[in-house]
Design a protein that fits this description.
The chain has 268 residues and is mostly helical. Helices cover 76% and strands 0% of the residues. α3 packs across α4 and α5 packs across α7.
Length: 268
Amino acid sequence: MNPISLSPTDLAIAASLVAFDALLSVALRLRLHRQVLLASGRMVVQLVAVGYLLRLVFALHHPAATLAIVLVMSAIAAREIAARPERTFKGATGLALSAGGVAIATVVTVGLALVTAIRPHPWYDARYAVTLVGIILGSVLNSGSLALDSLLGGVGRQRSSIEAQLALGASFHEATAPLLREALRRSLMPIINQMSAAGVITLPGIMTGQILAGLDPVEAVKYQILLMFLLAGASGLAAFVIAFGALRRLTDERQRLRLDRLRPTARE
C-alpha cells in the first residue's frame, strides 16, 4: 500500500467546512456554533493524543501495555453505558452490569477474530488487538446503552401491568419478557440498519479508509464484512447480558418487582 500523507494544510482546508457550519449557525441563529467549534476542537485534541499514545503502545510491543489500554477503554465504555439511561440503578449495580456486558462481548468477539481470522503474531499485538477493541466498543456502547435505557424506562412505564400479571400468578420472567424483547430489538436496530445499507447506500468508514490508504477494494470489502459480523455479534451479546442482568436485579426470590433499586427520575 502507498498511503497518502496528509499535511496540516490539508486538514486546515477540511476544517473550513466546520467553520462554514459555525457561520451558518450564527447567520440563522441556531445557537450551535459554540458546540460545533468545541466538539471539533475536542475531537482533534482527543484523536491526536490517542495517535501518539497508540504509537507508544505499538512501539512497546508488550502484552501489559496492550492490556492496560484495553482495560481503560473498556472501563470508560462501561461507565458511559451505565450513565446514559434516564433511569439508573442505585449504587454500582449499573456499572457492574455494563462492565460485564462489555467484557463478555469484547472478549468473545475480539478473541474470535484474533484466533481465527486475523491471527497476528504474537496474538496480543496492540496494532490489531487495540484497534479491534476500539471498533467493537463503539458498537457495544451503542447497543448496551439503548438496551438498558429501553428496559429501565419500560419497567417504570409498565409497572402497573407487570404487577397485575404477577398478582395473577405469572412469573417475573413471563411478565417482563415483552420488555426484554423490545429492549433487544431496539438495541439491534442500529447495526441492522448499518448492515442493510452497507455497499448500497453507504461505503463504511473503515472500508473507505483502507481504500484511501491503497488497499485493494476487494480486500477492503473482506475486512469490512468481517468487522460488520463482529459488530453484530458484540451488539447482541452486550445487549442481552446487560438487559437480562438488569431484569434479574429488578426482582428478588419472591418474584417481586423491585423498582426501589432504581434512582427516582426528575419527574418523580
